[in-house]
Amino acid sequence: MEIHNFDSSNSILNNFIAEIRDVDKQKDSMRFRRNIERIGEILSYELSKELEFHLKKVTTPLGKKDIGIIQNNLVLCSVLRAGLPLHQGILNYFDSIENAFISAYRHHTKGDDFDIKVEYLASPSLEGKTLILVDPMLATGRSLVAVYKTLEKLGKIKQVHIVSVIAANEGISYIANHFPKNTKLWVATVDKILNKQGYIVPGLGDAGDLAFGNKL
Fold it and tell me: pTM of this prediction?
């Protein structure tokens, strides 16, 4: 798996990461969502450099110009509900992309042990498509693997790009062993450890709750 980690260089991306981590600024859920969306826009721009392009002749008022245009058949799939603001950021840049949505959540069995439940899926065919799979928090990686196994049933996927805001090293290693070797991970920042409950430390908390409010 090819990893694109952007926390090793200074850019405006750092400002957005700092704000979504800050416990005081997290109280503003609208700002939290907007910052996640802006992170999605930045990662989309970087991801776009790895896509396939073809020349298209564009007519201007004064002449014609050949311009490289994306030719991949793209499908954007987000893991509900935390993935929605990141989904919107990517959608802002890829105007004609197809959309898919899937649910995945932790079903706790005993103590800190849990299974991943996938209960909802709405998606076009993935046959021959380039899949952009979105989950803001890549912790253990088990949710993404469960999601991908479900999506594989919808057709032979040409290429997979995974987009996350914060990942843990353990989760990156896990998905690297379960996704195709040509998968590309785009992540804004990486934290070293998970706690015993499988949450990223220092992370930022529950992205879904911070974006949309606490759940039962």
Answer: 0.93
